[in-house]
From TrEMBL:
GO biological process: animal organ development; negative regulation of neuron apoptotic process; peripheral nervous system development; positive regulation of branching involved in ureteric bud morphogenesis; regulation of cell differentiation
Domain TGF-beta family profile: 38-160
Localization annotation: Secreted
Keyword Disulfide bond among record annotations: yes
One MF term in the entry's GO annotations: growth factor activity
Family designation: Belongs to the TGF-beta family. GDNF subfamily.
Region (Disordered), start-end ranges: 28-64
Compositional bias segments (type: Basic residues): 55-64
Protein name: Glial cell line-derived neurotrophic factor
Keyword line: Cleavage on pair of basic residues, Disulfide bond, Glycoprotein, Growth factor, Secreted, Signal
UniProt-listed InterPro entries: Cystine-knot_cytokine (IPR029034), GDNF_fam (IPR043401), GDNF_TGF-b-like (IPR047020), TGF-b_C (IPR001839)
Listed CDD domains: TGF_beta_GDNF
GO CC terms, sorted: extracellular space
Amino acid sequence: ANMPEDYPDQFDEVVDFIQATIKRLRRSPDKQTPIFSRRERNRQNAATNIENSSKKGRRNHKGKNRGCVLTEIHLNVTDLDLGYDTKEELIFRYCSGSCDAAETTYDKILKNLTRKKKIVNDKVRPACCRPTAFDDDLSFLDDNLVYHILKKHSAKRCGC
């Protein structure tokens, strides 16, 4: 009795949600992931990240970002602390590590001038490991069945 024409706004939102979920599932490397507690997932991810961190750094262009790597952790959307109450889960990717290998002559000069107190220390920041690209938008329903989209929520690539 209730056809999509009766609820055109909700229908579009549901279609968007389904399309985003299918995209996420297609991107997922392992579709049959066993269910673990959050502590077990964090331990596994930490072990995997330690193994992969040196390999990932070497893949970057011309060896400039060797210390800056993409790291991932499995979380609930609620863990992001953005005010959403939901049981939806995601793989959150973030950039970590140092950018010392990307240091240029300019950076070395700034360090030297700062050390000699020729430049105020709080005005000079070292190169930092940051996202250079972000994952696709994340779509989810909260516990009140309200549809949300998070943009630029998770890193795709990192650089200095």
